[in-house]
Sequence to fold (377 residues):
Amino acid sequence: MHPMLKPALRRAWRDRQTVQFGITPAQAVVVSPVDPATGQFLELLDGTQGMPILYERARALDLPPDRVDELVARLTAAGVVDDPTAGGPAADALRNRADVRERLRPDLASLSLVHPEPGDAARRLAARAAVRVQVRGAGRVGATVAAVLSGAGVGRVDVLDGGVAQPGDVAPGGLPERAVGERRATAAGQLVRRAAPGGPARRSRGAEESGLSLIVVAPREALDVHAPDTADAEGWVTAGIPHLYAGVVETTGVVGPLVLPGGTGCAGCLARGRAQRDPAWPRLLAQWRSGRRRTAVPACDLALATAVAGLAAAHALAFLDGDLPATTGARWEASLPQLDWRSAPVEPHRDCPCGAVRNTRGEQVSAVAGPHDTMAG
Fold:
């Protein structure tokens, strides 16, 4: 092990014997008491030295090996210490790509706080390179989601959409103005390649060969955001492919649900639940679908679309990294102008063939919490 105090955690002395790592309550760790010798030893934990060398340098500070072991173990348990040599072969390969490593250094720092075990952040970040994601939709939301996922290290991001890009599809972080008139899927593919760390040529062989890990459904049609297509959902559920919905309808941004086939409520559950609560819903939906081409300019606020894309990408990455984000079995919505994000569960419906009703929500989602760590004594 090569202990390294995590660079993402800023240090400050609360008093002469107490040091705090981290700023926010979610990450702050307090270490006390810290005598002068221990304080000097902390400066040695920079990841460049293994434990044998640290033992030798600690002796010069009158710190015995057992005291060093105890301190490193406590700091590691509190999530303060990382190991820049850990994480396995994939993490080593990532470290050997200087261009990719530098691009993803802030992402690695963030992951080191979310996944505190030494080397775990590097392992998870490297694992993204073998992941394949499909984004369905290349409008203001979908293209931006695809670019963010690619830029965050996802090895392969495929974008599906029809038609040609329109001026209204252009968005910072999404399709550029020069894409207007090009086929949306082609323009989005170019965007994804440009966003990839390491340049347009980078694509992981593992991602090429792997099946889909996730589908992000980001339709340009507002009605398909509000009432997702149940036929597509049935196919994904049958194939066992997790999928996450995101988009803008009128002045409301929607992220979720993240559907885990057979485990959480799907688009079919959502449709059946609405029809059960509102008998007029199927009639309204049929009228809207038959007349949706009459609306020439759908509402899609640029800032709201960007916020939706960012939140959707963050939830997608959390899932791909092995966590269950808050959109698992739930829809998050925010409307202009207050933009107060609120969630509503998408309950499994007893008449939906997806089979999720057999599971209770408590069995589907396990809470992952990051407690405020404190070290004392």
The radius of gyration is 24 Å. The first strand starts at residue 4 and ends at 5. The longest helix spans residues 302-320.
